[in-house]
Amino acid sequence: MTWPTIHKSDEERAGANLPDYEAGARAFSWRQARAMLDGLPGGGLNIAYEAVERHVRAGRGEALALRWLGRDGSVRDFSYADLNALVNRFANLLASRGVGKGDRVFSLLGRVPELYFTALGTLNNGSVFSPLFSAFGPEPVRARMTIGGARVLVTSETLYRRKVEPWRADLPSLETVFLTDCSATPPTGTIPLAGALEEMPVTFETVRTDPQDMALLHFTSGTTGRPKGAVHVHEAVVAHHVTGRFALDLREGDIFWCTADPGWVTGTSYGLISPLTNGVTLVVDQAEFDAARWYAILQDQKVNVWYTAPTAIRMLMKVGASVAKRFDLSALRLMASVGEPLNPEAVAWGLEAFGKPFHDNWWQTETGGITISNFLSMDVKPGSMGRPIPGVEAGIVERLPDGGVREVGRSMTSGELALRPGWPSMMRGYLNEEERYRKCFAGGWYLTGDLAMRDAEGYYWFIGRADDVIKSAGHLIGPFEVESALMEHPAIAEAGVIGIPDPTAGEAIKAFVALKPGFAAGEELRKELLGHARKLLGPAVAPKDIAFRDSLPRTRSGKIMRRLLKARELGLPEGDTSTLEGEEH
Ligand code: ATP
Ligand code: MG
C-alpha cells in the first residue's frame, strides 16, 4: 500500500519555528546559529551555561525548568534558578575534590532529579559526562567505565552494591563515588551526595571551556556489534539548540516530554540539553512505560511537544487508539519519533489516535543530534525520515573497491546514507579506537552504515542497516520494507526480519513477529500472514517463513536486534549482548 502524503495547513506552517523548509535551509549558517547562544562571559562556550545560567542571567530564573514525576505519584518542580543552584553546588563539589577539566564523570542512575543537575554540574566544571543505563549489569558498567577512565561515579546505593562494588578494586582511577540515596551505613569508599552538596556554595564560575573541548562520552546502542564510545565537544550545544528549535519546534515556555532513557544519547541531547537551551519545561517521568500513565501525563501536564520512539508507539498501538481518545490531548502540537524506522502504519495511526502524525527523525550517537527530520511545516510522507536539518548536507553513496566512495545521484537513488562532516554535534572520535573512527570516512563523507533512498523531493527513506540487508535471489532487500508490510496486518504488534542461508536464493527471508492481544499464534494465522506479505510485497520480497515470538530481542534503547535473531536462528555465537534489554550481564 502506498500511504498518502499528510499535508500541513497554512496555519501550521506559519506558526512553526521553521515556517518554510527550503528558504530556511538556504538562509541557514552555523555561524548565525552560534549567535543564538550567548557564549561564556569573557569567551568560550559551555553546554551547562547555555542550558541554565544564561536563562537566569536573562531574568528567566523563575520559569519552570524541570517537573519530575515520581513513580509513587510525587511531583518535584525545579525552576531554572533552582536548577542553577544545584548545578553550581555539584560543580563546586567536583572542584573541591580536585576533579577538573577533561576528567570523566559517569552516571548510573534512573530518571531521578540528581541525574539532571549532576550531568550539568559536570559540564559546568569542564569535566566530561558519560551516562550509563541503570539496567546494565556489572560487566557492561565495568567495561565502559574502564574504557572511559572514570574518575567519578554518581549512582544509588542499591545500584552501587550490585553493579560496581564487586569490581571497584579493578579500577583505581575511580576515586570518588557519590550516592544519591543511601542507608545509615553507606558502603565504604562512597559519599552521600545530599550531605556533600549542602556544604557547597550555590554560585560557581563556569570553567572556561573551548568549543572544541570534550564534553560528552556516549556509548552507541550496540545493535550491530560491540558498542563504541563516541566523543562529543561543547560546540555540540549549537546543534542541540538549533535542532530542538527546528526539528522539535521547541518554543520558550513549552512543556516538552522526551521519553528516552537517560542512559543513551537521546536522553542527554534531547532529554536534557536541547530543551533547556530552548527555555522550555522538561517533564521527566521516573516510571517505566504504561499506556494509561503516559496518556495521563500528556493530558495533565499539557505537553506541547512529545519526543518518543517507535517501540513505545507500537506498544500504544497494541492498546488501541480508543484509549488515546479518552484523554484531552489538545495541548499537543508536535509528536516526534527517533531510534528505529517508524513504520508508515505507525505514522498514520498517530492521525487516527491524536489527529496528527508522528514526525520521524533520524540520527545516531555519532551525529550527536538530529540530522534528518520531518519538520512541523513540512508535508509528511509516511515511512520517510524526512529531509536534512538546515546546515547538514546528506547524500547517497556507494563504496568503491579501491576504498573510496561515489555519490550515486541526487534523485531516486539508493545506497549508503552519507553526511558531509561539519555540523557542531558530530563526534570527534571513538574513544581509544582511532582505526574504527577513521573507517567511518571516505571521499569527504561520513558514512553512516545505514542504507537509504533519496526521492525526487529530497526526502530520505530508510532501507535498513548495511549489516542487516538481505541478499535474496539477486535482490537487495531492506528488512524495514518487509517489516512495515507485516505491520499492516491487524494481528501484528512488531516484526523483525532477517536473511538465512538458502541453497538456491543465497538468502531466504524469515520474519519473527509478536502478536497484538486477542490473536493466537498458530498454523492458520501463519499461513494468512505469509499470504498477506506475498500480496503486498510479491513473492521475491515476501518472507518464506514466519515464526511467532512473545517479544523480540531489543537493545535498552529500544532497537530490535536483528543480528541476535539471526545468531539464535543459526546457532551462532551471540556476540556482544551487553545492551540487550531484560537480561543482566
Ligand atoms: P551500534 O552502532 O552500536 O550498532 P546503534 O547504531 O543502534 O548501535 P545508536 O547510535 O543508538 O546505536 O542508533 C543509531 C541508529 O539507529 C541509526 O544508525 C539507525 O540505524 C537507527 N535509527 C535511528 N533513527 C532512525 C530512524 N528514524 N529511522 C530508521 N533508523 C533509525
Ligand atoms: Mg550505529
Describe this structure in words.
With 585 residues, the protein is of the alpha/beta class. The chain has two domains: 10-453, ANL, N-terminal domain (Rossmann fold), CATH 3.40.50.12780; 470-570, ANL, C-terminal domain (GMP Synthetase, Chain A, domain 3, 2-Layer Sandwich). 31% of the residues lie in helices and 24% in strands. The chain is built from 19 helices and 28 strands. The strands form five sheets. It has a 15-stranded mixed beta sheet that branches. Residues 220-225, 227, 264, 338-342, 360-362, 364-365, 385, 448, 450, 462, 465, 557, 559 line the site of adenosine-5'-triphosphate. Magnesium ion is lined by residues 220, 224, 364, 449. This is acetate--CoA ligase. It comes from Alsobacter soli. GO terms for molecular function: acetate-CoA ligase activity; ATP binding. Its EC number is 6.2.1.1. Residues 481-559 form the AMP-binding enzyme C-terminal domain.
